[in-house]
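ok trying again, last paste got cut off:
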Amino acid sequence: TGKLFSFCCAAPLILKKKNKKEIQKFENIGLEIGLLFQVADDLIDYKGSLSAAGKKTGKDKKKGKATLINLLGYKDTIEYADALILKINNRLKKYGSNSKNLSETLKYIINRKK
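nice, full thing came through this time. structure:
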């Protein structure tokens, strides 16, 4: 998941022939967005319902799957996700309004139900 988001964030910079440092910065942001997506998925599996998620939930716990929720607990995982969003948004500040859509996407990722 992280590699996919990483590529999606870096591809426009590669196409624009930006320098390696700038490309690496967006690859890292993409990895963080991928992590956020995975955390959101784990939260859905933990607290979501079949009707809202559109899939069975509670699978991670039944399988004994290692998740951030198992490590930190539900509340601290939410706080971790919020801190991750803040970190990503701080990295994007220098781009001003050009990063607005990406910031809105972060909110969507963590608030999604599916």
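cool. The first helix runs from residue 2 to 15. DSSP finds seven helices and no strands in the chain.
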